[in-house]
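Subject: mismatched residue count in predicted assembly?

I count 549 residues in my input, but I want to confirm that the predicted structure covers every chain. Input:
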Amino acid sequence: MRPTMRPLHALLLLIALLAVQSLAAPTFAQAQLYQAPGPNSPTTKEQVPLYVPQDDKLIGRVSIPDEKLAVLVQPEGREWREWRSHTLRLAIGGLAIGMTAVLTIFFLYRGTIRIHGGKAGRLVLRFNGLDRFAHWTTAVSFLTMALTGVILTFGRTLLIPLIGHQAFTPLAEYSKSIHNFVSVPFVVGLLMIVALWMRDNIPEKSDWQWVKTGGGLFSKAGGHHPEAGRFNAGQKGVFWGIVLGGIGMAVTGYLLMVPFAFTGIGGMQIMHVIHGLLAAVLIAVVIGHIYIGTIGMEGAFDAMGSGDVDEAWAIEHHRRWYEEQLRKGYVEGRHPAE
Amino acid sequence: MARMKFLCDAERCIECNACVTACKNEHEVPWGINRRRLVTLNDGKPGERSISMACMHCNDPPCAAVCPVDCFLQTADGVVLHSKDLCIGCGYCFYACPFGAPQFPRTTDFGSRGKMDKCTFCAGGPEADNSVEEYQKYGSNRLAEGKLPLCAEMCSTRALMGGDGAVLADIYQERSLRRGYGSGAPGWSTAYGRNDRGSPFAPGGPGTGGA
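Triage response: the counts match. Full output below for your records.
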């Protein structure tokens, strides 16, 4: 019996194997040549997607040394474009024009703030040569960078229609170089300002009084004027605004000047936004600063012009500081012993 | 009028870099400038795809919108070109470009990066067609000779195609239907998805973001 059973077993096994194979074979053979059509396979040409929504960053691998190009799609560029094309211009232009409008209204209301009782004719040393050197180094380089920055930001809209592409390109190119190189004297001036004036710009209790009374800006001539030391709260505000804002602008500016040295493209977009926002704020602050230092107040420009202010101005605006100067003997024609 | 586009079929690309090499050779592209590059997504994982990427010649080019000197122009075929005479090398186009297409000869030179360079769709620049100046600044102008971009012509698997967008879309859809799958045209939604009128925009007009 046994030997006869063997071929039968073998036959049954063969049939079973063939049955399995006949089921599996077509799929197997097909998979080698074609991809099996899945449930999602398109049945018409129109079903084949062309536009696949791409809202996330796509990063892969590249075999070239420039690794930043491994980013295939960076949708953040769209937001940066919006910022560069609209928001930045709105921030800088809006704040500058807004500040100018406010100052114009204030000037019409208040006029030039006169020295109550007129000039005394005696001079008090307010800023020595080093002080003024630091101030004007910072001031001239700030104004240069503001102007060149504004040319690069608004030139396409405002200047190209006037002077044409051929003339604007050299202007923009020089603006860019000047903007970059003048940052060095700006930082030097800024550091000098910090070294020279930070001590006198530490906020103190009496500053609160100045803020509460609005610095006497809105009390008509002859009204109460809050007492102040070398710098009043408003000047301290300008000081810290320029120093902190200037440091922020310098850091972001230098990082933008060495592209990809410390940040990728995303970081540079953020740097540019910070740089632009700080610029908008600082330009507005400086417009206010220039106003009060020139046409806004009688006798104020002398402080940074000749360095000497009128005694009456000093007593009116910085009494505490004046008394100190008197003690030191910095008031013309008066001696501490008197 | 044709609307020139690139389409890279990621299912076909074998990352051979022939397109990259062809581009470099055809235009004498300097060392370090990558007008075209290959990016591999999901490298070594299931679903790995390689995509050949260059300037996509967008409908509403972000580079043109942010350029402070307005140096970009779009040809009647929709090809985005720029003038190296006007470019000041500020790098703004690279901030805005979704594909990383603009390239600069220098990167860390105290803010001076040289003139921007990018894929021209083998269409040269604003200079006279096939003039010496055009070749020196932008490379050869194959389009003016009636030829398509060399990268696409060189592609061994016909993954990368360059030409009229409508024709490319038709080929790609037919091909995907036959093989039963396709992951879409890489970058098309970003480059042409918004505002896809299929027609080019006048330089400086509303389509390029205006001024």
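Residues 24-33 of chain A have pLDDT under 50 and may be disordered. Marking this ticket as 'not a bug'.
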